[in-house]
Specification:
Blueprint: E1 6-13, H1 19-29, H2 47-52, E2 60-66, E3 73-79, H3 88-96, E4 100-106, H4 113-124, E5 128-134, H5 143-154, E6 162-163, H6 175-182, E7 195-204, E8 208-217, E9 219-221, E10 225-228, E11 234-236, E12 239-243, E13 247-250, E14 252-254, E15 258-262, E16 276-279, E17 299-305, H7 311-324, E18 329-335, E19 339-346, H8 349-363, E20 367-369, E21 376-380, E22 385-388, E23 403-418, H9 422-431, E24 435-441, E25 446-454, H10 455-459, H11 462-469, E26 475-485, E27 488-495, E28 498-499, E29 505-508, H12 512-525, E30 534-540, E31 543-550, H13 566-586, H14 593-600
Parallel strand pairs: 1-3, 1-4, 4-5, 5-6
Antiparallel strand pairs: 2-3, 7-8, 7-16, 8-15, 9-14, 10-11, 10-16, 12-13, 12-15, 17-19, 17-20, 18-19, 21-22, 21-23, 23-25, 23-26, 24-25, 27-28, 27-29, 27-30, 30-31
The structure holds guanosine-5'-triphosphate.
Residues 13, 15-21, 44, 53-55, 83, 134-135, 137-138, 165-167 line the site of guanosine-5'-triphosphate.
Pfam families: EFG_C, GTP_EFTU, GTP_EFTU_D2, LepA_C
Subcellular location: Mitochondrion inner membrane
Catalytic activity: GTP + H2O = GDP + phosphate + H(+)
């Protein structure tokens, strides 16, 4: 099949609008899988994904479609993309390998935030979009409303919409002819020198690292030596082939195809999404493909084993998990309160919770996680900059004379909400220090709202809050909006004057009072039953802003005495007082790991 008859496409959709179901139907129509196969939703592979109903890793599948008019075969590559915004870099690389995309809209729900955000990404990358309206079998389906939205929100002609039911298979056969007619063929040249883009990679327990690669120019075959443009490392191709739907080895693959490659790579972190491969020895003067970005962690947490003796075992587990996910950053960390542990960086809070779940599911590991923090940037007077990812390392006011400004990361949040909740969502955004950017009434009783929000508020379950404010009807997506100067301070939690490093938090000045009060009150709950008086204080720049006291628990040392034995009673009480005084001056409050764990668990 010549490159002019290749079509690479993906599906742009909001969660649950039916991307996996539609993918299955297309694979059935082209005979890749059998209809009614128990192997349902082949494209969603990982367990965690299936459990949460989200696609985390991109998977692809090739198919051959015979044009009924010309009787010519076409080679189609469907590139699945993660739906969630945490994985935006992976989404853009997937789109970069495609000439077009199906824009899938649920006829009962209409356009949602994730569709909007992914649409803009696909549109900016120049993809040809084919609107598909799904779930028309449902009674609540409103096809005209969906058409209208497609026309108004995306400025796509509404008569190009294909109404389908992916579940029932209704009309789905109309999609394939539209793909070959409307989506352009890849523009690469098989006779040029090899240039290939890493779209995705994963670890296969049997064959090691597997990469999903878009061959832009040239060809690739078994035994070829390839060179990474960004790491400068060399590999020998052990196997190449297409996903059909599992790995199907081929002798050679060429320009325009999206294929899997087994490079015999030891360290999975060397496979970087967006990296370019050349043929070794044929790479002189070639420029890498554009769009490479180092993964940028946005949320950091400290992680500590609940039992400190577990550190070594867990270290292997952590390193292994981090090795397999190049977007996780991992560093060792020591806390006075919790001992040896790690600082982990994630792309977003979903990414963090998926990682944590894997840790617990696959390894049964018990870990204590500190409150998440975002990367703050300190700009010093001498012009140097520092990114702070551990709250304990945030400077206190005694260092302020060195600092010219403190910067806080922001995102632009895109939300779709039913009209009647506009007021409550706007006040939620304002309460979270949001800055309104855009407000647009959609034709369907929904509002498209854009706000700039501090990332710190976004990762503090903003999505949960906005769902709460809209009976679950709001949808949210976001993109990086850079750093802004901000009044950020560090709040320490002290127990009898000793700051508990694992509980230090960084926050905006406006939050210290409420968060301070809340923290001391909550920590008090978990510290009951001390034999002497304990003061729990929240301090900002060495100033106490909130305090709770736990009264000493008094043991009744006199209970076994006869009531008349006054002098003996006095003596005992004296001695108890003495003992307490001593404990107070020298005694260290022992805080059990359970108390930290209980406190840190939201
Ligand atoms: P993510 O993988 O979470 O992004 O979801 P998805 O977009 O892949 O959606 P999926 O295909 O898993 O479908 C979500 C739900 O909608 C499932 O319960 C499907 O059975 C259902 N569904 C999909 N297409 C149709 C349809 O045409 N009609 C009806 N009635 N239900 C559908």
């Amino acid at each position: 099949i010549p490159i002019s008859r290749y079509r690479n496409f993906s599906i742009v959709a909001h969660v649950d609008h039916g991307k996996s179901t539609l993918s299955d139907r297309l694979l059935e129509l082209t005979g890749v899988i059998e209809a009614g196969d128990s192997n349902k939703q082949v494209l969603d592979r990982l367990d965690v994904e299936r459990e949460r109903g989200i696609t985390v890793k991109a998977q692809t599948c090739s198919m051959i479609y015979c044009d009924p008019e010309t009787k010519e075969d076409y080679l189609l590559h469907l590139v699945d993309t993660p739906g969630h915004v945490d994985f935006r870099a992976e989404v853009s690389r997937s789109y970069a390998s495609c000439g077009g995309a199906l824009l899938l809209v649920d006829a009962t729900q209409g356009v949602q935030a994730q569709t909007v955000a992914n649409f803009f990404l696909a549109y900016t990358l120049g993809l040809k979009l084919i609107p598909v309206i799904n779930k028309i079998d449902l009674e609540a389906a409103d096809i005209d409303m969906a058409r209208d939205q497609v026309e108004h929100t995306f400025e796509l002609p509404s008569d190009e919409c294909i109404p389908v039911s992916a579940k029932k298979g209704l009309n789905v056969e109309k999609i394939l002819p539209a793909i070959i007619k409307d989506i352009p063929a890849p523009s690469g040249d098989p006779t040029k020198k090899l240039k290939a883009l890493i779209v995705d990679s994963w670890h296969d327990p049997y064959v090691g690292v597997v990469m999903l690669i878009y061959i832009v120019d040239g060809y690739m075959k078994k035994g070829m030596k390839i060179l990474s443009a960004h790491t400068d490392k060399r590999y020998e191709v052990k196997e190449v082939g297409v996903m059909y739907p599992d790995k199907l080895a081929m002798n050679a693959v060429r320009a325009g195809q999206i294929v899997y490659v087994i490079p015999g790579m030891k360290n999975p972190r060397e496979a970087m999404i967006g990296d370019t491969f050349f043929e070794y020895g044929q790479h002189e003067g070639l420029e890498p493909l554009p769009g490479f970005e180092e993964p940028k962690p946005m949320v950091f947490v400290g992680a500590f084993p609940a039992e400190s003796r577990d550190f070594d075992d867990m270290n292997d587990v952590m390193e292994n998990l981090a090795l397999n996910d190049r977007s996780v950053s991992l560093q060792k960390e020591t806390s006075t309160a919790l001992g040896l542990g790690w600082r982990l960086g994630f792309l977003g809070s979903l990414h963090a919770s998926v990682f944590q779940e894997r840790l617990e599911n696959e390894y049964g590991a018990k870990i204590i996680l500190t409150a998440p923090t975002v990367p703050y940037k300190i700009i010093n007077r001498d012009g140097s900059e520092k990114i702070i990812t551990n709250p304990d390392e945030f400077p206190s006011n005694d260092r302020y004379h060195d600092i010219s400004s403190i910067m806080e990361p922001y995102v632009e949040a895109i939300m779709t909400i039913p009209n009647e909740y506009l007021g409550s969502v706007m006040s939620l955004c304002e309460n979270n220090r949001g800055i309104q950017k855009d407000l647009e009434y959609l034709t369907t009783g929904q509002v498209l709202l854009k706000y700039e929000l501090p990332l710190a508020h976004l990762v503090d379950d903003f999505f949960g809050k906005i769902k709460g404010a809209t009976k679950g009807y709001a949808t949210l997506d976001y993109e990086d909006a850079g750093y802004k100067k901000s009044e950020i301070v560090k709040m320490e939690l002290c127990v009898n004057g000793v700051a508990q490093d694992a509980l230090t938090q960084i926050m905006h000045k406006s939050q210290v009072m409420s968060r301070g009060k809340q923290s001391v009150a909550k920590f008090k709950e978990f510290l009951r039953f001390q034999l002497f008086e304990v003061a729990i204080q929240a301090k900002v720049n060495n100033k106490v802003i909130a305090r709770e006291t736990i009264k000493a628990k008094r043991k009744d040392v006199t209970q076994r005495l006869h009531a008349a034995d006054i002098s003996r009673r006095k003596k005992l009480l004296e001695r108890q007082k003495e003992g307490k005084k001593q404990m107070k001056s020298t005694g260290k409050v022992h805080i059990s790991n359970d108390a930290f764990q209980a406190f840190l668990k939201k």
